Amino acid sequence: MIIDTPAVVMRTIPFSDNSLIVRCFTETQGKVTVMGKGVRRSKNPLSGMLEAPNILRLHYHFKESREIQILRDAEFHEDIMGLRRDYLRISLSHVMVDLLDRSIHPLDPQPILFRLIQQTLIALSKPEKPFRELFWFYLLHLGTQLGFKPGLDTCQRCNAILRSAHLDLESGTLHCPDCQPQARFRLEDESLRSLKEMTRIHLRDITPLHSSVETNRQITEYLIQHLGVHVEGIQNAPSLRVLKQLEPSDPDGDLQKSVNP
Ligand SMILES: [Zn+2]
């Protein structure tokens, strides 16, 4: 059977002398691995295309009994070349597809997640869109779509309205400072307010929040830790090293420790 589907390239691994194994998140089949035979030969136009996080239209031969499908052809589906003009944007896009790759199982189509990654990558490729807020939006909605929507309104122990919150690393839930006096990861009121705002707005309406350096750090740390509690392998993902550059002011080194223990 030939499958023809939009797909986001998540990871590419060289195979033998001139082939590539490509892990993709396809719109119609979810995570699929395809083999591009001979695509690394110098004149093959596919070699430059099969790179994370490109959004392609893929044509491949699919057999359910096979773990790796055979790529027939590909073309660009969306133009996100603007990403490559900015080191931080392209790095964040790699974090986004890497976390997605670690969170989903093969052949489990998730059209809402597909729209999320596709639309966030397109927005991130536009220099006028704020990269940090887009990254937060993506992490927040990735968690929600995976079934781990952060409970930002009330303490998960006593039900009090949260003005600031402490993350419980066992359950991944937020508690009020009375229920949990000590915590490595906190959200002060400004961070909590910004996060709640993020849950209410549409991707196209994201504008810079102009948060303080400390708020930026709290939100980024919290979102990564929240996902990490629920999805194995996220906290130690090598792609997260770029977050040191995103939030360089981290005075306690918590993010660094969690990224690079
Ligand atoms: Zn409480």
Descriptive overview:
- The chain is of the alpha+beta class and about 260 residues long.
- It folds into two domains: about 80 residues, OB fold (Dihydrolipoamide Acetyltransferase, E2P) (Beta Barrel); about 170 residues, Up-down Bundle (de novo design (two linked rop proteins)).
- The chain contains eight helices and eight strands, in the order βββαββαααβββαααα.
- It is elongated and about 60 Å long.
- The protein starts with a strand and ends with a helix.
- The model has no long low-confidence stretch (mean pLDDT about 90).
Question: How would you concisely characterize the structure shown here?
Answer:
The protein is an alpha+beta fold. It is 34% helix and 20% strand.
Overview features:
five-stranded mixed β-barrel, binds zinc ion, 8 strands, 8 helices, alpha+beta, 261 residues, OB fold (Dihydrolipoamide Acetyltransferase, E2P), single chain, de novo design (two linked rop proteins)
Q: How does the SSE layout of this entry go?
A:
Layout: E1 2-15, E2 19-26, E3 30-36, H1 46-49, E4 55-61, E5 69-76, H2 87-103, H3 111-124, H4 131-145, E6 165-167, E7 174-175, E8 186-187, H5 189-200, H6 213-230, H7 243-246, H8 254-259
Parallel strand pairs: 3-5
Antiparallel strand pairs: 1-2, 1-4, 2-3, 4-5, 6-7, 6-8
Helix pairs in contact: 2-4, 3-4, 4-6, 5-6
The structure holds zinc ion.
